[in-house]
Amino acid sequence: MRILVTNDDGINAPGLAVLERIAAEIAGEGGEVWCVAPAFEQSGVAHCISYTHPTMIAELAPRRFAAEGSPADCVLAGIFDVLGGEKPDLVLSGVNRGNNSAENAVYSGTLGGAMEAALHGIPAIALSQYLGAGTKDLDDPFEAAAVHGADVVRKLLAADQWRLGEEGGYTTFYNVNFPPCAASDVAGTRAAIQGRRPGDGFGMDASVSPGGRRFLWVRGARQDVDSGPETDATLNRENYITVTPMRADLTAHDAVEPLSAALK
């Protein structure tokens, strides 16, 4: 099996090293793991692509490349440059430092990489490690992902449910979040829908530099709250690994029929 890995935390991120080990286990003897990851951190860029400027790419080691672009850029670079147009069998994105549950999924560059792969019909999985009180004193905060990651990927490969929905529609990809606990405390793996934490989410705080210039900083939302019954963040906080099937289709399908009636 040929696997392409990427992330949004950057080529030197510890979570990427965890993902490379997971990928090597899945690829098996005789398989190939190729890495194309951002040269610098790209957290929060979602499905951004560098449409108006070129992306520099450099080979750091055999099958390991850094690109000055987003995770989606890296997937494109992997497919069309590094692999010479030959699609990999699987794309893995992560392991993100922090959860991509609930509304975080909308902003996630980790998911952006997996989504780009899915748009090319390639099976793709985004993996993220929820951090919290249960991980702060661990020697390895990515422990849950490192221990359970390969098993989750194997189950998704065995299920082989990538092209669900309408024929010719969007390929499904998967958002996996590992709970904020030690690997031994993981309660199991659950399919979950994307939740929404209460409140307004991200905000802005202003500050003034010593030179008198005004800057705005994005302020994160609370992560230690639930996101609704049986949803991803809630189940993660109950020590479950969650797997959420996703597609690039942004249509609010339940709104189409009432909208049609309103427009008559």
TrEMBL record:
Its EC number is 3.1.3.5. The keyword Membrane does not apply. Belongs to the SurE nucleotidase family. One of its GO terms (molecular function) is 3'-nucleotidase activity. This is 5'-nucleotidase SurE. Binds 1 divalent metal cation per subunit. Nucleotidase that shows phosphatase activity on nucleoside 5'-monophosphates. Its main location: cytoplasm. It is found in: Cytoplasm. It comes from Tropicimonas omnivorans. It catalyses: a ribonucleoside 5'-phosphate + H2O = a ribonucleoside + phosphate. It is an enzyme of class 3 (hydrolase). A divalent metal cation binds at residues 8-9, 43, 96. The keyword Amino-acid biosynthesis does not apply. Keywords: Cytoplasm, Hydrolase, Metal-binding, Nucleotide-binding. Residues 3-197 form the Survival protein SurE-like phosphatase/nucleotidase domain. Its cofactor is a divalent metal cation.
